[in-house]
Fold these 2 entries.
Entry 1:
Amino acid sequence: MRFVSELIGSVLNWAAVQADSGFWMPVQGSTGAVVVDRIFSLILWVSVFFFVLIVFLMVFFVVRYRRRAGREEAEPSPRHNTALEVTWTAIPILIVIGIFIWGFRAFLNLNVPPANTYEVLVTGQKWKWLFTYPNGQVDENLHVPVNTPVSLVMTSEDVIHGFYIPAFRLKRDVVPGRYVKLWFRATKQGEYQIYCTQYCGTGHSDMWAKVVVHEPGGFERWLEEASDFLKKMPPAQAGERLYRTRGCAQCHTVNGAAGTGPTFLNLFGHQVPLEGGKVVVADEDYVRESIMDPQEKVVAGFQPVMPTFKGRLTDQEITAIIEYLKTVK
Amino acid sequence: MTSFDTALDAGGPGTGQNALGGDNYLNHGRGLKSWLLTLDHKRIGVMYLIVILSSFLLGGIFAMLIRTKLLTPGNSALMDANTYNQIFTLHGAVMIFLFVIPGIPAALGNFVLPLLLGAKDVAFPRLNLLSFYLWVAGALIALGSIVTGAVDTGWTFYTPYSTTTNTNVIGMIAGVFVLGFSSIFTGLNFVVSIHKLRPQGMTWFKMPLFLWGIYGTAILQIMATPVLGITLLLLIAERALGIGIFDPTLGGDPILFQHFFWFYSHPAVYIMILPAMGIISELVSVFSRKHIFGYKFIALSSIAIAVLSFLVWGHHMFVSGQSLLAGMIFSFLTFMVAIPSAVKVFNWLATMYKGSIWLATPMLYVLSFLFLFGIGGLTGLFLGALAVDVHLHDTYFVVAHFHYVMFGGTVIAFLGGLHYWWPKMFGRMYSELWGRVAALIIFVGFNTTFFTQFVMGSQGAPRRSYHYVPQFEPYHVLSTIGAYLLAVGFVIAAVNLGHSLFRGRLAPANPWGGATLEWQTTSPPPHDNFPVAPVAGDPYDVEAWTFDDRVGGFVRKTQAVQSVGS
Amino acid sequence: MQAETNGGAGVAEAHGEHVAHHFDTAEQQFESGKLGMWIFLATEILLFGGLFCAYAVYRANHPEIFVYAHRYLDKTLGAINTAVLICSSFTMAWAVRCAQIGRTRALVRLLAATIALAGCFLGIKFVEYEHKWKEGLLWGKYFHARLEQPAPAAQPMPAPTPSFNTEERSAIPPAAQGPVGLAKPGHPAVLGESQGPPRDVQVFFAVYFMMTGLHGIHVIVGMVVLGLMLVRAARGEFGPAYFTPVDLSGLYWHLVDLIWIFLFPLLYLIR
């Protein structure tokens, strides 16, 4: 029953999305999307033409030449026809060369950014995207101003991830140990989906984020407000925000449920059994050490898979997190 | 039409038609040992058929589990995310390495190749048996790894995830490594057989086109598989010894793995499709009762595909960070490799022109193939175009594309070939009615399952996803309904074939009117293949054969005239 | 990896020829065996080809690593090994000739000589490997040699935005160092040694051990196969009418030698 109502809900959802976009493609959110869609359409119509031709001929021949009384044998016909065969080889060659050239030119243009782009650093890690803005602010979503060329400089912290914005028709693998660049120019305000498309483990299909395209002036306001959160919010609230947006929530729950790492519920101030038998108290030093050198004290029953956050969290942020953990009861 | 389907007794032993009551390869030597240690290519082919179809069943079960989970977008009681990731990996690895790559060459090729050559066996029968046992060993090692921590990397094993995950990667790839040798030795055997065992009068351009397809495949198996071998060895060394070749923290390059991997895996997909196209060439001629059109172009296109297939691997890596120049070259060559396949389709259609088209079960699979492979091949154009591939890569569009070519292409052709050679292999005819019903259900089920995925993919749905956004739920539900329909179709086909082994009409020597040499011996063939050494003629001279009601199959025209007169 | 040693013949008899039932003539059988063996050798070339490719890629991108690290290989031992293998190819070819003309005693002795030379090759390789092991000149994560000078301070990474902290990066557990990937734009190609040891010297040894290790495995397998040939030859199974297995084993052995002839200059003689 629940399944049926969920299904109905999603059909309505689908219909709403269709109204906004097309049958094949999602909404066109950037200048690049328009270019890609044109080539897609070209290939689509060429394919439809040839497919209909082939299927039509096939069905026509089956009907017209079907085996029946009086037609137990084939009619005499040539076993080859060089002119015909050369023609139907040459014409497809010309067509695909045409498609190739158009696709290739568009690809070049899509990959050469204009001068003066606004640069955002993108980091992929298991299982979260993080976006670092030029003023140092790190956020879990990609905020950009509308109608402004934006460059993304991307890398990975661990394994290969795939950065994908369907609405912009944009995708690139992010590789540990190197940087890759993309650029786009968003044309419509709104929110668009970001996915990870390169399989990266348990949380691969949870590695979602959003592109938020702001109206003129809106981006600057957002950035200013977001950057000050450490100063403006009470430390525990800032810590909660850091917990959610900086890669802790992927592995540590706050409601007691099991995860890749121990839950934070009732953690602070209590005893923690470690691998090897020792027992320690989860105080400020313990939390700080677990963030900077997570392999030092591994909790009993858990794998030593936590990466270090050295260089990724400032002292002020760690303090905020500690304050937040004190409230998780 | 009905005169071809009545249950006529095809004549008892010694009439040169059916040999089930007499001496044939199935009862030549009894007992398990005579099968397990056989050097007879026909028995090896049957053993391969059994294990390969079992692998298809296993891979299919994994597929049904995946599709069932994907009915809902969130967490599922059926399986958690880790299990899902392992199951899609196993589905891919089992289907590709255990089923589709060995598939047609091992299960059908082994049986039919020497018969098509009028020969007594392949060039190296003991190597052939070794290939079979290498397959078994590799399969056991690979499947054994499930018990010790099933892999979750996807069948592509990309580094650095595959070098750092704590699932049993080494177990799985060791199994694949052994399977690779099975493939190499089969290819080696087939190449030497075709070079050295052709009979008098069968020049290269008088060979059946199935042999051209097998030959092209065998070249790919020989040349490409060793590169997979070294790739897997390097991956094992990376995991076991920390050799550092793919690890950026040790100076290595994870993208190098992708280059090595796809250098094999792209030719691998042509290993999958070339024999299938060979089968279609045979079937379309026989069931149009007409000589194949454009023999030379079809034969040469198999070689062209084999050669070009080595030059396009980078089209799997357009978004990996490889240079724009490399992308351009690979895109161009990818479009070129599409052309020989298109040419074949036109030649097959031209073969049907003015023919006498017989909609027996094998022919229904031919028509399915033309439709499904047509879609599969054309959607390759989208993926070969650089700018469009950026959007479609790693989405469900790619999943749909490769299922259309591998499943809608190779598996459908495999089914066509299986139904075509079944009477020869086992001496029995199956029910045409149920054969056609199954073919139709499979066709409808397949399109329902996978066409939906094209649209889902171009709308942005990423692949390998346990969770998905609710917008895609209607697509997934429709796709799963199609999958269940597919399963029903396969069950019907399997029951139909299995039932025929016990209750089917006795098959004549040539039920379909083929002109290739395998139809000039009894059904099933004797141990030595031919009671009398056959003379090779034109393999597509189907018009020299006519249906004889008394035999319930085709006989040479001169014979029929004589038997009518006597 | 077994070399396929005959073209499907049944039990080889000491006298006369035995043609398998599916071949029409002995010649067809022999030619099939030869073709099969050449195809197998092609697969071996492709197997090693992957490693040569990896060598080419890493050397093209980091010539300084190869120039620096290859000095730790002993050119003399390598040259001796090359001579040893070339001699063994000579004794092998001579052995095949003896089989062809029916000189069984010489055949047995030459096979033994080939195996002995192969053993000598492996012995020298063992000495080389032992030295590397002691010095810590190993691959990837096991590299712990003390090089001439301390490695230079962390080289500047291409910093994308000014405020992003590139000094301390997170680690992929359990690996410890920061990422240093293959594509480092702007990295100076150091062909001389004036700046001390380059980063990632272990890459050279990873390539070295993979290539010589896989080659060594093939030498061992070759010794086993030649041992089997020796036993059969001693039993008088080979003569002018039937010497295919010796011939095909010889082809395999020549390939093993040929691969080393490429490995030696590429690994030992870099300038």
Entry 2:
Amino acid sequence: MTAETIEQAIRDLVAAYGDGVRTAHEGIRTLVRVSDVELPPGCQPSRTPMLIVFDRDQAKPIPHVQPEQLLANGRAPRSTSTQIVGGESWMQFSFNIPWAEGQGIIRSSPPPVSGSPRMTEAALRVPVGLGHSLREEVFRQGRHEYVALGLVASATLAGGETLLLRRIFTLPEDEYVDAPGHDGAWRGAAMIPAIEAAVDGGLGLVVFHAHAHDGPPRLSGDDRESAGRLLPMFAARVPGRPHGSVVLSRSHAAGLIAMPGAPAREMTLDVRWLGASIVDWRAGTEPRSSDSSLAFARQRLVVHDRGQLTLGGARVAVVGLGGGGSHVAQQLAHLGVGELILVDPDRVSRTDRHRLVGMMTLDVLLRQSKTRMIRRAIRRIGMGTRCEAVTERIPGPVALAALARTDVIVGCVDNLHARADLQELAWRFLIPYVDVGVNIRAIKEPEPHGPRVAIGGNVLTLIPGGFCMWCSGFLSKEKLATELRGPDRSYFENREGEAQVVSLNGLVASQAVTEVLQLFTGFGGTGVGLSDLALDGRPGTQRGFRKLDGVRGTLEDWGAWRRPDCSFCNSTLAAGVVAWKTPR
Amino acid sequence: MEAHESGTAVETKHHVINIVVEVDGRNRHVRFETSPITGREIRERAGAPLTDDLTQLVHGKPSGGNIGLDDLVAIKDGDHFIALPTGTVS
């Protein structure tokens, strides 16, 4: 840092903080103390003195805060050390000041994103359909503000503690009361049905309302005061779940959230709305593209910069790295997906060579693991995709933990039991799940010049809140029982005799990857209502149930319906992890 | 205290009824000597705002709807009630 740049930075700080700025010199270091800096919401304390050390031997200024400072997640910052600076005790802070030599502190630019962009204080996931209903209610125009009571399960997922919205209750108009000084007020007894359902289901309660503007919202004093009485009451009813009061703007969410056993804290939330695509409202700074290469230039014409950026931050699991999965994983890398979780316990064999894309002769000799082989292929593609290899079968604990952190799961497995496990995981944690499969059967007595084989297959796009494999009849108890009498549950083994052709695998795999592309970039639509998923404009028929006829060369969307009485959906959707409680 | 009216004379029996009223997530133990009592008496003794709704808790769940200020409630030892505050937003 030059002396001129440091002087400019100090002028910037004085312009921003006025009389609160003090400077001192210690050796070659310039110390700048700012008496009162507001930290991101939820940090404890939320306002603090800050010390910025400008050292000419360092490339960037080094910020310090008071020891014992906690981040919004309640934890101490990482990569910190407490030091004596200027005779005082300060904690070096891992925050990265936006800085450019010659310009000083870049106040107009958000701080660069370091590490995972998923770091946030809490997250909320909303199934397709429910999000539309929630927004319709809380943004409703009327003589007062409207609220909706949400029932939530929870789990620790990629974004930290994640609330999973299972159900909402709206209040009848006559349950609202006139209350001067408040924009909306409702009778306590109006919450009884929601509280009953929360107790029955062991679920958290969240009061939602809206401030109809863009940008981050803030709870009003009234909102906080009311939540201050409601949340302890909710927590007394269901102690093992988070409870909260959340305000939505048109682009962000914030709230007062009481995690189990902890006092309520004001925090910002990442919200994930599931629908035709994944729509994320990020609590923090939107990550900015750092890729200025031409590698994705032509793809950007379809997905735009924002879509490409989303792909770069995405984490996708590919379960099963055989004939379908080898195509899927490498195409995802070509798209620029940021991270792949590769799940397969198997090693390659001689009989895989005709269909595992990327496989080499040496792999057979070395009996290479499929995860390692695919990782090598992805590295050679060179789009910067990170890979995590999981050589464990579904539903092993390591594999499940890895899958729970993903944004989308692509299942390329060859039996229904594995599909049932992935279906459950996807629904429980609200993760979109794309399933592919091909089935080739010989026709026993073919016509003289007719086809000798029947080639079927599927590409199912399962959006939590829409139809599931059980709703659509793709899974049934009878089918699972039949499978148990056939091949065993070794998903990737003992299927060597089954017919496989690389081009047919590639056909369904390509469609699956296109489905993933749609989920992340929304090039075909971004609506979050069930009507936004309607097949050919037919209400109630959801697209995403595609069937392959490999002989005719068609991949046709048959459509499917979510059955209101589907016991699987009703018990598993947004169920999160169970909340343990002490028996009475 | 239990009162029985018989002609012009009033016969009174003394016994204590302990109930629990949950206010803001905290249990308040309240003692009465008569039954029935009014919703207002329960709120006042438990320190719940009169603007709160009040209902009985059965197996941890609100049950039976709101007990108004002037509604009479027959109580017995161990009964559990909950005050439900009026929710507000601005």
